Amino acid sequence: MTDNNFRDENNFEELDDVCDECKKEDESVSQNLILTGFKLCKSCRLSKTIFPV
Length: 53
Description:
globular; mainly alpha; 4 helices
């Protein structure tokens, strides 16, 4: 098997560092995606933690 078998173009689209809530680009989006499974920046994650509506 080669590395090409493990690559999928659809997976690279998810790592675009754009927040789903505020649509701003931030490097914390990919970090939060790995940690929590949600594409949120630091500020949106904090606001969702404080106000979970």
